Amino acid sequence: MGGTFDPIHHGHLVAASEVQALFDLDEVVFVPTGKPWQKDAGQVSPAEHRYLMTVIATASNPRFTVSRVDIDRPGLTYTIDTLRDLAAQRPDAELFFITGADALAQILSWKDADELFELAHFIGVTRPGHELTDNGLPRDRVTLQEVPAMAISSTDCRARVERGEPVWYLVPDGITQYIHKHHLYAQP
Ligand code: ATP
Ligand code: MG
Fold this sequence. Notes:
- With 188 residues, this protein is α/β, with parallel strands linked by helices.
- The model has no long low-confidence stretch (mean pLDDT 93).
- 37% of the residues lie in helices and 15% in strands.
- Helix 1 (10-22) links the parallel strand 1 (2-3) and strand 2 (28-32).
- The chain has a 3-stranded parallel sheet with strand order 1-2-4. A 3-stranded parallel sheet has the order 6-7-8.
- The chain contains 8 helices and 8 strands.
- Bound molecules: adenosine-5'-triphosphate and magnesium ion.
- Residues 3-6, 11-12, 15, 99-100, 102-103, 125, 127, 150, 152-155 line the site of adenosine-5'-triphosphate (ATP).
């Protein structure tokens, strides 16, 4: 599961947990992006903070791990490179890429879209506010999956912190504490 994870929240965790159970996955690898090509660089928190928050949020689940492949690779992050790196590290694994409805909608515009579908099976999960449609996607390589709806976004979490509003229960407790300890998203 790739993401900016700025910060990781319960929407990500519920989606990952649900897909892990439904598809009987051995492992869900959370992959924080380095520099996402779709996002303005100045608006994204330093990779180490996003990586550490992802580690904290996933530490208690034996099936969840975190990969540094994207944050350690120089340059912009493209999902094709993520999948190539993960495939090289796990030559015998069958790869699934978990993504939300909003990201799935853009997938055909991603770099090397054809090869993406050769490297992994894509699982598009429901996300409140975004419709789950498979327009133009190869049906044998993409599964649309309904997961319990969590109307949470990182953008909203950041805005709440900036306004001095709580993010308790939207993100794991350790993430709330990490955000405050490092003064993330707060006004200077
Ligand atoms: P931002 O608001 O900064 O874009 P985000 O909440 O969308 O953050 P990302 O890190 O961009 O989080 O998302 C990583 C992946 O998780 C994407 O594929 C996204 O669609 C999916 N996702 C995020 N939030 C949810 C949610 N509440 N339910 C289901 N999927 C989600
Ligand atoms: Mg997003």
